[in-house]
Amino acid sequence: MFPGMNPKMVKEAMKKMGIKQEEIEATEVIIKTPTKDLVIRNPQVSKVIAMGQETLQISGTIEEVEAQKFSEEDVTTVAEQAKVSKDKARAALEKSSGDLAQAILSFQ
Hints:
CATH superfamily of the largest domain: Nascent polypeptide-associated complex domain
Distance between the termini: 58 Å
CATH class of the largest domain: Mainly Beta
Mean pLDDT: 90
Shape: elongated
Radius of gyration: 22 Å
CATH topology of the largest domain: Ubiquitin Ligase Nedd4, Chain: W
Number of helices: 4
Largest sheet: 4 strands, antiparallel
CATH architecture of the largest domain: Single Sheet
Structural class: alpha+beta
């Protein structure tokens, strides 16, 4: 938490100031932006509550990946409409940049 400080003393000081901290078990954290996704692997996540505000502190290995232009619901829709597997539907959506109609018609 604070390098070089006794964790027990830090916890007591936080308690006196009305600050609560809770560790959250997580295997992966994804932050989505319009152009990219930030994937945090092996995260350490803490929820801190102070003065009525909830804040998350996240640390881990950060990887930037291109934002996916479609959802799993889109994959299911294409798969059902085109009567193909979800893997084929996903590939068609990737090829069509997320355009559902184009993806469905690609199987015609």
